[in-house]
Design brief:
The protein is mainly alpha-helical. About 75% of the residues lie in helices and about 5% in strands. The chain contains 27 helices and 2 strands. The model has no long low-confidence stretch (mean pLDDT about 90).
Length: about 625
């Protein structure tokens, strides 16, 4: 089966080509189901690969075709079927399939229905290429592909210029991070004379920790990861990515694009384990991002913006885990986050759908009775992301916090603070949406309805996974969970460099109990504020002060970037365009054209139509040629 792993990305590619080429002829009742079927086929093959590897099969690199060969440089199109890529494929295709099915109902009636599903299939294809790549350049193909698809899907409703601006912002900010990834690949080839995972990681085992070139390589790779996974300083694109349809937000935030940075660091874990400075940078960046994004989420009133900043914050916690050396713990949280974040986004989409497009939390409330199934499913996602047992987020977040404690008690304290902020902003959102009385218009109240089954069934499956998806992993597995054991062959070299965790099981449960108690207290405080006191966030026109004003305005980070980078670069570009491009290059090109026209105008005078003149001219030039031959 491993030999046929190349078929897995082929199915969504076929769906993209068929739906895209026939978008104007294919009936809309078929395109959504066809696109979903292609992802389902990929999921089924991914399950077979996962089972084969779980059964003891060795990881295998499959060369599909020759690609680049120049001198000693040889870069084939090759796929790596190992336990890490198998896990990622299950997440991408499994959650991606549920999002596709949900989209059939959500996008019903949209004029770009067929085009939407073509883009969605293309997104899945490139993400599968990213995680299946057996060398860095093949990963980079998928890396750039998901960036393209995010641009197409964020700006899907392209008649709105604001949405187009959000798509451009996402595309450009990702290109900044991608430059770091590209430079990192150049350094990898210069250092190891190869870009294949197998060659690079094997050669890296003989390098001493802290070597300067490894530090430079890992910092550059991490720069790429900050762009894709929306970490400081390249995180402001992700909240604006909410411009696309809600299923797009779910796909980007849960199963595909933003997980790419986590995957890159985990895949290159051998290199990162050799760079303690980079590991500290990774952990610190993730922690600051988790705190900043969490605080911003506390004061946002757009339901999708709250969830967007939530994703940024949760990704920050995953980087904390990676920086602390818990690669399997971060991937565990990546998996559970895919479940509950897809559930939260799609549930939010159901709410927005029922309210006729309304996204403002201040115009919701009292939806518990009117949307009972959505209420129950959203509550499941809320408990999971908050870290309440036995919901999946409790176990995966506990892995990261335990790793943070072993690295530094201070890192643990601030990571716990980020977890408390998470529980606070998500329950703030939950209370404002479902409790109290409805604050929208009478027209919206009349429009409220539960979603159709094609949307509720995927939500139900995600709800089940969010609630119980972690239990098979953590039960009957001691001292490590099943996922850590499963991924052990992938991270064995990195783990040997980092050393075993000094934290005992009893200490781990004690820390988890402390965190859980604090989370319950934070949930209780939010219930007092938003249920007992019935607090409703102020209108946008109200003048806020202090930290609240800073957080409400997202710490003015976008404004700072505009002042430092966007406006100066725009002015420089305008100057270069007017002074150099138009006045020099344009005139130089125009001069060439004028010279050709002038020469043509003079030479055409030779075309007199007189045969005698032509014969005379021919004889003269024959004589000239003969004379030149005699001379030379």
């Amino acid at each position: 089966m491993l030999k046929l792993v190349w078929l897995i990305p082929l199915f969504p590619l076929a769906g993209f080509l068929f739906t895209g080429l026939n978008s104007r002829r294919l009936p809309v009742k078929y395109s959504g189901w066809l696109a979903s079927l292609m992802v389902l086929l990929s999921f089924m093959f991914s399950v077979l690969v996962f089972l084969q590897l779980s059964g003891g099969a060795e990881a295998e690199t499959i060369t599909v075709a020759e690609w680049i060969r120049a001198g000693s440089l040889n870069i084939p199109i090759e796929f790596l079927a190992d336990r890490l890529s198998a896990l990622m494929m299950l997440i991408i295709t499994g959650v991606g399939f549920l999002i596709h099915v949900y989209s059939i109902g959500y996008m019903h009636g949209d004029e770009g229905y067929n085009r939407f599903f073509a883009y969605m299939n293309l997104f899945i294809f490139f993400m599968l290429i990213l995680v299946l790549g057996g060398n860095f350049p093949v990963m980079f193909i998928g890396w750039e592909g998901v960036g393209l698809c995010s641009y197409l899907l964020i700006g899907f409703w392209n008649k709105n210029h604001q949405f187009n601006n959000a798509a451009r912002k996402a595309f450009i900010m990702n290109r900044i991070g991608d430059l770091g990834f590209l430079l990192g690949m150049f350094f990898i080839y210069k250092t190891f004379n190869s870009l294949s995972y197998k060659d690079v990681f094997q050669a890296a085992s003989g390098i001493l920790p802290g070597t300067r070139v490894i530090t430079v390589i890992t910092l550059l790779l991490f720069a790429g990861a900050t762009g894709k996974s929306a970490q400081i300083p390249l995180f402001t694109w992700l909240p604006d990515a909410m411009a696309g349809p809600t299923p797009v937000s779910a796909l980007i935030h849960a199963a595909t694009m933003v997980t790419a940075g986590i995957y890159l660091v985990a895949r290159a874990g051998v290199l990162f384990a050799l760079a303690p400075v980079t590991m500290t940078v990774v952990a610190f960046t993730g922690l600051v991002t988790a705190l900043v994004a969490g605080i911003i989420a506390l004061f946002q009133n757009d339901i999708k913006k709250v969830l967007a900043y939530s994703t940024v914050s949760q990704l920050g916690l995953m980087f904390v885990g990676l920086g602390a050396g818990s690669f399997s713990g971060s991937l565990f949280h990546l998996m559970t986050h895919a479940f509950f974040k897809a559930l939260l986004f799609l549930s939010a989409g159901a709410i927005i759908h029922s309210l006729g497009g309304e996204q403002d939390l201040r115009k919701m409330g009292g939806l518990q009775k009117k949307l009972p199934w959505t209420f129950l499913l959203f509550l499941t996602g809320t408990l999971a992301i908050s870290g309440i047992p036995p919901f999946s987020g409790f176990f995966s977040k506990d892995e990261i916090l335990a790793a943070a404690f072993t690295k530094s008690p201070a890192l643990w304290i601030f990571s716990v603070l980020a977890s408390l902020i998470t529980a606070s902003y998500i329950f703030r959102l939950f209370w404002l949406t479902f409790r109290g009385s409805f604050r929208g218009s009478p027209e919206q109240a009349d429009h409220i309805h539960e979603s159709p089954s094609v949307m509720l069934i995927p939500l139900g499956i995600l709800g089940f996974l969010s609630a119980f998806g972690a239990l098979p992993i953590v039960l009957m597995a001691s001292p490590e969970n099943r996922l850590a054991i499963y991924l052990q062959p992938v991270f064995s070299n990195a783990a040997a460099r980092l050393g075993p965790s000094p934290l005992t099981a009893a200490s781990g449960w004690l820390l988890a109990g402390i965190v859980l108690s604090l989370i319950i207290v934070s949930i209780y405080i939010t219930s007092v504020i938003f249920i007992k006191r019935n607090h409703i966030p102020d209108d946008d026109s109200v003048n806020r002060k202090g930290v609240i004003k800073l957080a409400y305005n997202k710490f003015y980070i976008d404004e700072i970037y505009n002042a430092l980078f966007v406006r100066p670069l725009s002015r420089i570009s305008l100057f270069l365009s007017e002074k150099i491009d138009i006045r020099i290059f344009d005139k130089a090109i125009e001069s060439v054209g004028k010279a050709v026209m002038f020469a043509g105008g003079k030479i055409r005078l030779l075309q007199t139509g007189n045969v005698g003149f032509y014969l005379f001219t021919m004889v003269i030039f024959i004589i000239i040629v003969l004379v030149l031959n005699l001379i030379y």
